[in-house]
User: Which sequence fits this backbone?
């Protein structure tokens, strides 16, 4: 009985606080990315932390489709994922679909946009752009 | 009949693994570059250059070993620690497991771009936090001594895949062992060090080998963070980036093939050593 109590206390004093703090650290980069994806070219390099951007620029999500054939890239990735993914894990491949937040470029028809390594072609091309900011 | 069933995989293994390997082996003894039509046989010249003339071979190998000596243990310990906590009977277990696994679903290039922003010396979040605690800000990606720690932080974020393997291993440990320990009055730490970790050694061994092999092959993350130059003073020039530069920037494919072969032998060497020493510390049950 006493041991059960110790167990329960240690859960609430040690385990939960630790897990919550660690979870925040783990999720933070994703929140930060989403927040950045709503920023303007000016506010993206602001020094202070601005998790809720001001102004919120939802049009970034339209721009990425205008500047590059994202749907085409997605299609490429799906074909790749289904055809070659079975050498590893199909679900994992498809699960890896993520929109690169900075991909505002016009590098035409790079073959694989979102698949694991090959999105270096497009995200990597914007590398210089990010660096210039 | 059984052979017919595995034939597709045998063909794939021959076509996609064995033949490229043999071609690489042959090319490593030539001066093959894309521009010349036929590669010339040059004997061991490439290997001679690697070991005697190429300063970036040692530099990049040193960087790679430094990086994996830091990142592999850190990631193993983080994955194991979180797996142990997420193996307890706690609330919101599924939510916590999802949160810790999610980063390993993000493609490596996207991870690198996210962290590229976060490591920025001026507006990146890491320096914001340091300033918050009155610590001096760090130029993560432009100071030679901070590039590898930055890479380690980034790779540690993706420990989720290893954590899931640890979790599977933890759930495979027979509960009778813990019941027996409880009968004898064993506390949590005794159970951890006398039962959990010994029974988990095959999984630790697996993650260690996979981690070391992956560590030697680090490429995409460093390439996106630092570019092909490998950062200031080549401090972020990893071995595979060196191969890539030789192959696709200088078009010395023969030399790059030789570098690849050397890397293969290095990885083979480490793997054999690990496998050979594993029977001293890995427990596969009393056989």
Assistant:
């Amino acid at each position: 009985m006493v041991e059960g109590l110790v167990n329960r206390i240690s859960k609430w004093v040690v385990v939960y606080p630790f897990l919550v703090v660690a979870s925040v650290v783990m999720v933070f980069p994703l929140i930060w990315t989403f927040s950045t994806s709503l920023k303007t070219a000016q506010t993206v390099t602001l020094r202070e932390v601005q998790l809720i951007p001001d102004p919120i620029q939802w049009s970034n999500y339209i721009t990425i489709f205008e500047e590059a054939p994202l749907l085409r890239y997605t299609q490429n990735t799906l074909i790749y994922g289904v055809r070659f993914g079975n050498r590893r894990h199909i679900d994992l491949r498809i699960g890896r679909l993520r929109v690169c937040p900075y991909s505002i470029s016009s590098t035409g028809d790079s073959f694989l946009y979102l698949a694991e390594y090959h999105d270096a072609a497009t995200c990597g091309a914007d590398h210089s752009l990010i660096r210039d900011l | 009949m059984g052979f017919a069933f595995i034939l597709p995989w045998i063909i794939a293994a021959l076509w996609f693994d064995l033949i490229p390997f043999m071609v690489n082996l042959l090319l490593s003894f030539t001066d093959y570059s894309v521009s010349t039509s036929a590669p010339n046989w040059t004997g061991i010249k490439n290997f001679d250059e690697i070991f005697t003339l190429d300063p970036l071979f040692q530099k990049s190998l040193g960087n790679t070993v430094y990086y994996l000596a830091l990142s592999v243990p850190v990631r193993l310990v983080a994955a194991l620690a979180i797996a142990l906590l997420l193996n307890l009977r706690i609330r919101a277990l599924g939510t916590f497991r999802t949160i810790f696994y999610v980063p390993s679903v993000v493609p490596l290039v996207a991870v690198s771009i996210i962290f590229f922003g976060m490591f920025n010396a001026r507006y990146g979040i890491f320096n914001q936090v340091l300033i918050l605690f009155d610590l001096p800000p760090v130029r993560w990606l432009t100071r030679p001594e901070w590039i590898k720690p930055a890479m380690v932080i980034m790779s540690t974020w993706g420990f989720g895949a290893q954590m899931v393997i640890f979790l599977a291993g933890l759930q495979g440990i027979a509960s009778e062992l813990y019941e027996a320990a409880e009968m004898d009055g064993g506390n949590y730490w005794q159970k951890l060090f006398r039962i959990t970790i010994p029974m988990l050694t095959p999984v630790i061994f697996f993650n260690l080998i996979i981690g070391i092999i992956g560590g030697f092959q680090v490429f995409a993350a460093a390439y996106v963070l630092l570019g092909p130059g490998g950062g200031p003073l080549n401090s972020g020039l990893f071995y595979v980036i060196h191969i890539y530069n030789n192959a696709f920037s200088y078009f010395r494919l023969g030399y790059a093939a030789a570098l690849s072969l050397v890397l293969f032998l290095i990885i083979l060497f480490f793997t054999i050593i690990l496998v050979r020493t594993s029977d001293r510390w890995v427990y596969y049950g009393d056989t």
